[in-house]
Design a protein that fits this description.
Layout lengths: L3 E6 L8 H10 L9 E9 L2 E9 L8 H5 L5 E3 L5 E3 L9 H5 L6 E3 L12 H7 L17 E3 L5 H4 L6 H4 L6 E5 L6 H8 L15 E4 L2
Parallel strand pairs: 1-9
Antiparallel strand pairs: 1-8, 2-3, 4-5, 6-7
Length: 212
């Protein structure tokens, strides 16, 4: 059985926000909601200053804290290791947002457009993807529910990489089966010292980082 995950090479990442924009464009996320977020931090003192970029997304934990507190059963750990939200079942209680130690969940409280009251053609597609739309996300746009990254499940069904991986200009992201010892992601974690964020919390994230 597979356990899909991601490896992000912090040495290769240039902090261009390409993953953040690609995710937003692919999943039609509204203003204020960014499933793939790039955090910036500066270390050192002038003139020896270094800026570090830390791409964040849902960690798709093997032991997801969000699933344990969901009263409606909307949050589910799938057989492939990814953690998803059933938007028809979610009641918007936001318990999962409190439980998630990585801040990877967002509450879509009301309908928002990028330019006033009128939707752009792009937003119209996001609200109601036409039949046969090649990259049709399961989410579309729904208010009053919690939403998050699902590693582009709609793309993976077509055997495509998640949008953030496919559009990383620095080739800093890798996607694959962590349970396969011969996969590229497993090899990178093993050979290059891949690490998880906050492993002491016991959630066992499926997103690993390669050190700078």
């Amino acid at each position: 059985m597979a356990r899909y995950g991601m490896v992000i090479d912090l040495k290769r990442c240039i902090g261009c926000y390409g993953c953040q924009i690609a995710c937003k464009a692919e999943n039609f996320t509204p203003p204020g909601i960014t499933w793939a977020l790039v955090l910036k931090n500066e270390q050192g003192s002038f003139p020896a200053v270094r800026r570090l970029s830390l791409p964040m997304l849902c960690m798709h934990c093997a032991e997801p804290a969000c699933e344990k507190v969901c009263p409606s059963g909307a949050t589910v750990k799938e057989e492939d290791g990814t953690v998803t939200v059933d938007y028809e079942t979610c009641i918007g209680c936001r318990y999962c947002m409190v439980a998630c130690p990585y801040g990877s969940r967002y509450f879509n409280d009301r309908e928002l457009n990028y330019y006033g009251d009128q939707r752009t053609p792009y937003e119209e597609v996001g609200a109601d993807p036409p039949e046969g739309w090649e990259s049709k996300p399961r989410r579309a746009r729904c208010t009053g529910r919690v939403e998050k990254c699902d590693l582009c499940s709609h793309r993976r069904e077509q055997e495509l990489e998640p949008a953030c991986v496919a559009n990383c200009m620095a080739k800093a992201r890798y996607f694959g089966d962590l349970d396969d010892p011969y996969s590229e992601v497993s090899r990178l974690v093993r050979e290059k010292g891949g690490f998880q964020l906050n492993p002491e919390l016991g959630t066992d994230p499926s997103v690993y980082y390669l050190p700078v």
